[in-house]
């Protein structure tokens, strides 16, 4: 959360606020965090060997690092175009970013957060929350991605539609808003 704030401070200081820490994201986010702590504590107490799977924790750590690095790369690449809140009005400085990590994925910050969040639960060897985080994160990003893409189509028109044809969303089984 500190790195989220720090990159926002460097990248887009005009949008910087305490909300940039993303600690007060939502009730659901706080519930997910609490659930992971409860699951970890219960399983550590009831079957401690479950929490000592080194290869699984290592895989989770790699997911966390990959996800966080991808998200921060997306924020830095987008520069002042990145904001934690989907913008409803196009400013004069808005540009469609298609280079760097945006050449790999249309929504690299979402992809990064998706794998980071699941990775935290794999790292902790929390099977229930790993499944829960996967399902809830997938649904959350499917909805937000579609909302954001409608805005991007409104802002950039054919330029975004061509980009959308060339570059995948990056999230499994999520193609984005359907355009006929």
UniProtKB/TrEMBL annotation:
Keyword Endoplasmic reticulum: yes
Range of residues in the leader sequence: none
Membrane topology: Multi-pass membrane protein
GO biological process, one term: methylation
Compartments, as annotated in UniProt: Endoplasmic reticulum membrane
GO molecular function: protein C-terminal S-isoprenylcysteine carboxyl O-methyltransferase activity
Catalytic activities: [protein]-C-terminal S-[(2E,6E)-farnesyl]-L-cysteine + S-adenosyl-L-methionine = [protein]-C-terminal S-[(2E,6E)-farnesyl]-L-cysteine methyl ester + S-adenosyl-L-homocysteine
UniProt cross-references to Gene3D superfamilies, sorted A to Z: 1.20.120.1630
Broad class of where this protein is predominantly found: endoplasmic reticulum
EC number(s) recorded for this UniProt protein: 2.1.1.100
Keywords: Endoplasmic reticulum, Membrane, Methyltransferase, S-adenosyl-L-methionine, Transferase, Transmembrane, Transmembrane helix
Class of this enzyme: transferase
Record carries keyword S-adenosyl-L-methionine: yes
Annotated GO CC locations: endoplasmic reticulum membrane
Family affiliation: Belongs to the class VI-like SAM-binding methyltransferase superfamily. Isoprenylcysteine carboxyl methyltransferase family.
Name recorded for this polypeptide: Protein-S-isoprenylcysteine O-methyltransferase
Native organism: Tinamus guttatus (White-throated tinamou)
């Amino acid at each position: 959360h500190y790195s989220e704030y720090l990159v926002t401070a460097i990248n887009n200081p005009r949008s910087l606020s305490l909300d940039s820490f993303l600690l007060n994201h939502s009730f659901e986010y706080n519930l997910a965090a609490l659930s992971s702590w409860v699951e970890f504590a219960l399983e550590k107490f009831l079957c401690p060997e479950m929490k000592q799977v080194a290869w699984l924790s290592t895989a989770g750590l790699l997911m966390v690092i990959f996800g966080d690095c991808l998200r921060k790369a997306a924020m830095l690449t987008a520069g002042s175009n990145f904001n934690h809140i989907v913008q409803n009005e196009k400013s004069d400085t808005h540009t469609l970013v298609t280079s760097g990590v945006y050449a790999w994925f249309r929504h690299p910050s979402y992809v990064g957060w998706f794998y980071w969040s699941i990775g935290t639960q794999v790292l902790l060897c929390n099977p229930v929350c790993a499944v829960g985080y996967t399902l809830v994160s997938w649904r959350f990003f499917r909805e937000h991605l579609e909302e954001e893409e409608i805005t991007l189509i409104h802002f950039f028109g054919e330029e975004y539609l061509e980009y959308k044809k060339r570059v995948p969303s990056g999230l499994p089984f999520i193609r984005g808003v359907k355009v006929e």
